[in-house]
Amino acid sequence: ELAKRKSSLSYSGARGHRWSCSSMQGWRAYMEDTFVAISNLKDLKDLKGGLDSTNIAAGSALFAVFDGHGGHEVAMFCERHFPGKVRALMSDGEAPEEILRQAFQAMDDMLRLQESVEELTWLRDSWSTDSSSRDQNCHSPVKSFSEKQGRHRRRQGQADHHPAEKVGATALAIILTAESVVCGNAGDSRAVLCRAGQAVELSCDHK
Predict the structure, then answer these.
(1) Are 159 and 118 contacting, i.e. CB atoms less than 8 angstroms apart?
(2) pLDDT, position 25
(3) Phi then psi for 148, rounded to 5 degrees?
């Protein structure tokens, strides 16, 4: 039996820009794609505390799309961790191009960690894909993963193999500042800039 098609619409903005996002689940049983839209990285709360935001220019924004392949867990994982990594690198004074390069590599590295395996298992088994669980100004999951849940998964024998062995995601991200628009892409998602009514390609497909 085909799943019921679902769609959602979100929008917000900050000084100098406005954004909106529309998504459709299609006929799959679960929504496998996700996105990040943060209008002001400088004001983004750091859950671990202690990050210096001095080097983050006011109004710096982050937008990203993660197109899940084979499941939603890797896309959700990147949504949860990518913004924090970008903000940490920006706090260190890295250039936008280097921030995106390192953040992409960091997601790949983090997916191999044992604690990430437990989190991916939790995302696969427990995560609600209902778009109503997301905040409209800073899109990130409102639920949290705990070590207790990870140990519970191991006891059930559900973490014996890598939960994302056959799951992945494309990653397309843009850092927007007052001076530049910098795009990074891995996969076949696309970014297009509208300039004076003309479409300008910002990304190249990786196939």
Answers:
(1) yes
(2) 67
(3) -60, -45
Question: Using alpha carbons only, what angle is made at residue 47 by residues 44 and 49, rounded to the nearest 5 degrees?
Answer: 95
Q: Please provide the DSSP assignment of 160-181 as one string.
A: SS-TTTT-EE-EEEEEE-SS-E
**Which H or E run includes 154?**
helix 147-155
Q: Please write the tens of the pLDDT for every residue from 93-149.
A: 899 999 999 999 999 999 888 888 888 888 888 754 444 334 334 444 334 555 545
Q: 13-27, 100-114, 126-140, 176-190: which has the minimum mean pLDDT?
A: 126-140
Residue 119 three-state SS? helix
3-state SS string for 102-114: HHHHHHHHHCCCH
Residue 180 Cα distances to 70, 113, 152, 161, 200, angstroms: 34, 34, 46, 42, 15
Q: Which of 163, 168, 201, 160 is nearest to 186 (CA)?
A: 168
Contact between 193 and 200 under an 8 Å Cβ cutoff? The reply is yes
CA distance 47 to 144: 11
**Chain position carrying tokens 């002001």:** 40
* Rg, C-alpha atoms of the chain: 17
Task: Let me know if 157 is exposed, middle or buried by CB neighbors in 10 A (0-12, 13-18, 19+).
Answer: exposed
Q: Are 62 and 177 contacting, i.e. CB atoms less than 8 angstroms apart? A: no
